[in-house]
């Protein structure tokens, strides 16, 4: 963590959920600019929900998400992989080029320079030569590489990654982890949902442990303790999915 920097993103007594049933409640935390944060917790803890809230896919039921000055246009969000990613009928080139959407007009094609940038992004994830392949023909690891290439082109100061390293081969995990650490080195702020605590200990300076509420947030070694993990398990098991919105008064 870099506590002397002003926070870039702040959650203030934040409650997020679905049809007014909270999935995360009363979360307060401040994410410093440039932080690399592992968002961790048991299944169903609310990790994906938090990223959806920051990305603007869910409106808070209560509390606030204070965004950076540049707003959501500076936030790139990579959701979990879904079947739809694979069945979408486009070539690898076109899928990766979608990362440039923010630079393109409604009917404009790609300039020569933009086509070159797509080529470089594909090279950076070792997919040069795959340009014309339909994405449906890619392996899971290759598809994840293509999704990272699209993120390279988005060039966002804030990056949200939901389980980017799940169910892919170790070589691809290593390559994509390297890319993510490179983005961190460039000063981007990154929130990544991760399940593998060894990866978290090894690569993430900061962790946010969720179990429907905040269990711990700070330097990874201080968050990933047996006591915190036991509390997270307990809170998750005790949570009622159909609970109505609760009203906790903020401390005066
Ligand atoms: N679209 C939805 N509609 C209703 N409830 C949902 C929806 N998406 C998630 N939930 C519920 O919200 C809670 C938190 O889910 P979420 O996916 O955020 O957890 P998670 O920590 O990312 O879990 P996992 O590690 O299993 O991916 C769960 O009880 C889940 O069933």
UniProtKB/TrEMBL annotation:
Keywords per UniProt: ATP-binding, Cell membrane, Membrane, Nucleotide-binding, Transport
Single GO MF descriptor: ATP binding
UniProt KW Nucleotide-binding keyword: yes
UniProt cross-references to SUPFAM superfamilies, sorted A to Z: P-loop containing nucleoside triphosphate hydrolases
InterPro entries named in the record: AAA+_ATPase, ABC_transporter-like_ATP-bd, ABC_transporter-like_CS, Metal_Ion_Import_ABC, P-loop_NTPase
Listed Pfam families: ABC_tran
Domain ABC transporter: residue ranges: 9-251
PANTHER family assigned to the protein according to its UniProt record, in alphabetical order: IRON TRANSPORT SYSTEM ATP-BINDING PROTEIN HI_0361-RELATED (PTHR42734:SF5), METAL TRANSPORT SYSTEM ATP-BINDING PROTEIN TM_0124-RELATED (PTHR42734)
Record-stated family: Belongs to the ABC transporter superfamily.
Name the record gives this protein: ABC transporter
């Amino acid at each position: 963590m870099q506590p002397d920097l002003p926070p870039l993103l702040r959650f203030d007594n934040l409650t997020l959920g679905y049809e007014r049933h909270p999935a995360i409640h009363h979360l307060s935390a401040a994410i410093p600019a440039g932080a690399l944060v592992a968002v961790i917790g048991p299944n169903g803890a609310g990790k994906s929900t938090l990223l959806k809230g920051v990305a603007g896919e869910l409106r808070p039921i209560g509390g606030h998400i204070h965004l950076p000055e540049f707003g959501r246009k500076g936030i790139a969000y990579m959701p979990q992989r879904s079947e739809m990613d694979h069945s979408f009928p486009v070539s690898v080139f076109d899928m990766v080029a979608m990362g440039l959407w923010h630079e393109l007009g409604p009917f404009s094609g790609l300039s020569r320079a933009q086509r070159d940038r797509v080529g470089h992004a594909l090279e950076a994830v070792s997919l040069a030569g795959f340009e014309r392949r339909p994405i449906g023909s890619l392996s899971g690891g290759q598809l994840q590489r293509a999704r990272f290439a699209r993120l390279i082109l988005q060039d966002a100061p804030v990056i949200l990654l939901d389980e980017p390293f799940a169910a892919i081969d170790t070589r691809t995990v290593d390559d994509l982890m390297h890319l993510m650490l490179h983005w961190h080195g460039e000063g981007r702020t990154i929130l990544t949902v991760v399940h593998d605590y060894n990866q978290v200990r090894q690569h993430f300076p900061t962790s946010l442990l969720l179990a429907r509420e905040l269990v711990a947030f700070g330097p990874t070694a201080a968050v990933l303790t047996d006591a915190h993990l036991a509390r997270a398990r307990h809170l998750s098991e005790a949570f009622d999915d159909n609970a109505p919105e609760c009203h906790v008064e903020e401390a005066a």
